[in-house]
Structures are given as C-alpha cells and as structure tokens.
Amino acid sequence: VYIKKIMIKNFKSFGNLVKLNFEPGFNIVTGPNGSGKSNIIDAVQFVLGELHTRRMRVSDHSGLIYDGNEEGGSQKASVAQVTLTFENTDRNLAIDKNLVSISRKVDRQGNSQYYLNGKRVSRRAILDMLEMAGISPGGYNIVLQGTATRLSDLTPQERMKAFEDLI
Amino acid sequence: VYIKKIMIKNFKSFGNLVKLNFEPGFNIVTGPNGSGKSNIIDAVQFVLGELHTRRMRVSDHSGLIYDGNEEGGSQKASVAQVTLTFENTDRNLAIDKNLVSISRKVDRQGNSQYYLNGKRVSRRAILDMLEMAGISPGGYNIVLQGTATRLSDLTPQERMKAFEDLI
Amino acid sequence: KQEHFMKAFNEVCENFSTIFAKLTGGGEGRLELQKPENPFSGGVDLYVQFPGKPMRLVAGASGGERSVAAIAYLLSIQKFLKAPFYLFDEIDAHLDDLNVLKLAETLKENSDGAQFIVVTLKDAMVQNAERIYGVFNQGGSSRVIALPLKLEVVS
Amino acid sequence: KQEHFMKAFNEVCENFSTIFAKLTGGGEGRLELQKPENPFSGGVDLYVQFPGKPMRLVAGASGGERSVAAIAYLLSIQKFLKAPFYLFDEIDAHLDDLNVLKLAETLKENSDGAQFIVVTLKDAMVQNAERIYGVFNQGGSSRVIALPLKLEVVS
Ligand SMILES: Nc1ncnc2c1ncn2[C@@H]1O[C@H](COP(=O)(O)OP(=O)(O)OP(=O)(O)O)[C@@H](O)[C@H]1O
Ligand SMILES: Nc1ncnc2c1ncn2[C@@H]1O[C@H](COP(=O)(O)OP(=O)(O)OP(=O)(O)O)[C@@H](O)[C@H]1O
Ligand SMILES: [Mg+2]
Ligand SMILES: [Mg+2]
Prior knowledge:
Bound molecules: adenosine-5'-triphosphate, magnesium ion
Oligomer: heterotetramer
Low-confidence stretches of chain C: none
Number of strands of chain A: 8
Radius of gyration of chain C: 18 Å
Mean pLDDT of chain A: 95
Largest interface: A-D, 67 and 75 residues
C-alpha cells in the first residue's frame, strides 16, 4: 500500500482543484514560505479522519475551508473536500481492489461526510479499515513541522508506552 | 552598552577557556551541529543570573559543568565559570567605568557565586544593575533555538501583558 | 498610564508596519487593540497580509510567515526600546532563501546603534555579516575562531 | 507478551544502532531498558555517542543532534513495522549541510519498499529526490507542479 493520488478542493489554501500523483520511493515537496506545503500534510491528516483542528493548525472547522481572496476575485467556499487514493495491489487494505479511495467533506458548521470508493460510510468504518494497515491520523509516520526532535524529547516512560502501542 | 567579550571555562561543552570578542553591529555565529553554538547563548543566560536550568537545556546544575571526555583525556570539571564584559561608554549601566564585567561560577552542588568587576556580590545586586539598562536573563531580546515563532504564537492577552511589561 | 501606553503602542505599530513591509517586499502588518476605548480590558491582535494574499490573523499563517511576523514585531519593539544586544538562535530555520536574504539585509540595515549576535546555518546570513565566528569541536571540547568575512558556512 | 516485546525490542535496537552509525558516520546509538528483568515497570533510555564525543542521554544533545537521533529512531521502527507511507515536514530544518546530505542519502537507500513524502527547503535534499513537486501560490490559491529532477529549490 502507498499513496497514489491526493485530490484537494477548497481545503485551506487550495481554492482550485489540485491533483497530486505520487509514486513509492523518495518524493520531495518544496516551494516558498506560505505556498501550501504543510497544508498538503494537513489534507492527508484530514482525510484520514483527524478530529483535532489544532493538529491542522486551525481553531475550528471553518478554518479548514478556503476563505477566498477579494483581490483575486475568488469567493469563500462553503465545503472543503480531500480524496486520497491508495495503491492496494498488496491487499494490505482489506478491500479486494487495486485502488482504494477514501474521501472526506466538511462544511462550515463542522459536519463531516466520509466516502469509501465513492460510497458514503461512517468515520469508524474508514478508521477500522486503515488501522489494519497500520495507518492512523496521529501515527508516528507523520512528523509535523517543528516537531522533528519529538521522538528524542520523549521521557523514558513515554518511549516505553509508545513501544508497547507499536508492537 | 553592548557585549564586548565573553569568557567561558568548563561551562557545558567548553572544556578549555574560550574568549569571544564581539563588536556592535551584525555578528554571525556558525558551525556544525553539536559544535557549541547554543551553549554560547546558554552561557550568556547563565551569567545574567538565569536560575531555571531548563532554559539552559539541562536537568540540574551539574549538567552545566563540562563533563569531560575519556578518549580525549580531559577530566570532568568541578566548577563552571562565565564572565561577560560590557562596553559601557554610554553609562547605561549605573557604574562609572568604560568596561563593566560580571561573572558567575557554579559547582556541582548548585552553589553559585556572582562577581562584579572582580568583587564578590549578590545575585540581586547584578540583576538590579542590569535591569536599569533593560537587560534580564529571560528578556524578549534573547530568542532560543526552536522558538522563532513564539512572538507570533502569543494569545492577544499575552501580547497585551508583554506590552505592559515593556513600557 | 493609559496615555503613556497609547503613545508607546502607536509608535510600535508604526515601526511594525514599516519593518513588515520591508521584510515582505510590500506586505502589510498591523497591530490592533481589541478594545481601543479601554485597552487593558482586551488584548492586542496581530494581522498580517502577505503579497497576493488576504489580511489574516497571524495564527493562521504558515511556519515561515509566522517567523517573519515575529521578527518584524521584535525589531519594531527594538526601535522603541533599544535593548543593548540581541541573541538570535537559528531564527531563520524555517525561512526560504528569499526570506533569509531579506532578513539578512534588514538586520544589516538595523544594526547601527545595536548589537545582533545571530546563530545561523544559512549561507545567505553569513554572507551579510560584519563579523563571523566559527564554532567547532576539537578533542571533545568546543572552540571558537574569528573567520575572515568571505567564507562559506562551516559544515 | 513479554517474549513478544523482547523480540521486537531487540530487533529495533539493532536497526537503531545500524542506522545511527550510517547517519553519523560512525557514531553509536543505543536503546536500553531501565529495568531489563521487568521491562514494563521501567522506561526506555536512548543513548547517543557522536564521533569524538562521550556517550550521553539524548536529552543532553544539541538541537541538530536530537533531530538526527529522532530520525534514526523512526527509521529503525520502520524496518520493523513498515508503515505504508511517511510524511516529514521540514525534519531537516536544524541540520547542517553535512547532516542534510547524510539524511538524504539514507532516505534514498531506505526508500525501496517504502514511500517517503518529504517537505523541505534544502537543496541537498531536493537533489537526491526521485520526484520533486513544486508548490506555489497563484492568485491567492495554492497550486502544485511536478518539477523535472535537476532543478534548484524554488524560492
Ligand atoms: N482557510 C484558508 N483559506 C485560505 N488560505 C489559508 C487558509 N488557511 C491557511 N491559509 C493560508 O495557507 C498558506 C499556506 O500555509 P502552509 O502552512 O501550507 O505554508 P507552507 O508552504 O508550509 O509554508 P512554510 O514554508 O512557511 O512552512 C498560508 O499563507 C495561510 O495563510
Ligand atoms: N555538561 C556538558 N559537558 C560537555 N558537553 C556538553 C555538556 N552539555 C552539553 N554538552 C554537549 O554540547 C554539545 C553542543 O551543544 P549545542 O546545543 O551548543 O550545539 P549547537 O552548536 O547549538 O548545535 P545545533 O546546530 O545542533 O543546534 C552537544 O553535543 C552536547 O552533547
Ligand atoms: Mg510549512
Ligand atoms: Mg543549537
């Protein structure tokens, strides 16, 4: 399993539909300050079911939705949507398909809808499926900006606890 | 007033006596990871009277003292000392001298001794003199590693409080 | 007390928008009292507008943008209340090359009558310095040498 | 449970010292149980020895050294429990040029059978990548283009 494609529309600074095709191996994302790099990582956390808006660096759900730009003429959006497509030839996701896509929409009141291969499902259904493949929104495999030393700064007890969770 | 000279001996990674002569203007300190750059900043906080060892990234006072290197043959030191010499031609420090030096020693039990121009004085005497010139160990003019966005991350109330303290 | 505060606040506000515009090549930075009629009962909001973007509270900006705003804020206080020296430890860690260059130029311009001691790993900062100190480890102990000006970052 | 834990722990320990040695050019990294006879009643200590320095607890190391140790620890778990993908947001911000280069080479070597998506502003990382995505702001909205490999960092 790996991330094959991410589609982002009206999520944070992504006012237009943006598609990113990824491959396995060593992918680099670069660009000027404020261009939207960390917002891509927030988009992945979001579609994996992250509930804490703090981890996506906003104070409430409406902060996740593109808020437009008067000068550029684009309007405030009312719904944000992110779709993530996994390559699943190894069947690590318990779905008998080569491509598995999950999707999440949110409106300005904070109501979320989740989709699995286009069909509406519960958040729990998505989380259970991902957990089997070792994927979760707050997993150790996602290192947010400014937290590079976090794994070194754990206390010995926290490190043991994290170890137990992993095994 | 500005920092003219810093002398560091057996403070953290400085096992030998090191002297740094600074000038006003734009001074750069650079070097590889782990070479001792942040320890120079810790040395300044230390001599200004900083009591919280956490701000100097150690768990207790003995962590401030050079702990030697068996391979290199150097011993664990028993006392760390930092001396800071200010250029005081503008007399912003209430001392009638062109050069004013403050010094602090600490032993492994955490006992500190403070000196002003070579004479033993109390910590309070040093802090009072420095405060008149707008110098304090935890001042806004010292930005520690990893805290560059701190002034932007304050809440509006914290920002007002910091403003009131400054005026 | 309130009069004294307002005088100081207005001066820092002016400094902030001037320095922020310089650091961002034309952006607009604003400090605003939440309760202008009774300042101490409210807080101080910090708004930033980066070129080509709408004005927003600084908390919603990116990591690099928040570093730029924090540095502009710090320098705007400096003009008002001159601290004898400034110690900055890798404040440029999350800045892109363009912002590092603008910061280096701004520090150089503001260094008359001030003392900046800046720890950095970035070439663009080193190249603008008036004095460079190289720190290195020898035999398990830190040493420092003054470097001639036209040198690359020690790595 | 304890048997299962010990098997996992020993494997991660071995991975950690191998990867730490590779990242530091010969340094020694060690994970140790505080209470080996009853592991769950104690914690896990992380010791690091950088070339030319004594062994010490990781908490006492410098910012860049702690980043290197954390990355080695993360990659040592990866060998044991392969996560389908890794997202790293500027984990190299406090690394000097030499450590950035070593990190880029290590990620490249470990990327068979894994997927790293790494946000960076450093040239040395971009030059080692297999694919580069450039993010930029146009008309107040973020866009992304796939960049040809031999390009400098967009700034
Ligand atoms: N709801 C929103 N609508 C529109 N723009 C937003 C929204 N939320 C955040 N932004 C903007 O998104 C921009 C990009 O943020 P992001 O943190 O992704 O930048 P970055 O590329 O990671 O930059 P840096 O290199 O500084 O870390 C910021 O300028 C921020 O103001
Ligand atoms: N009491 C001590 N005795 C000897 N060495 C120490 C002591 N305390 C800390 N050190 C060592 O000092 C070294 C330098 O630390 P410092 O944080 O100053 O590095 P730095 O140059 O700022 O590096 P970076 O670029 O990674 O931030 C570290 O390797 C650390 O292990
Ligand atoms: Mg970012
Ligand atoms: Mg440092």
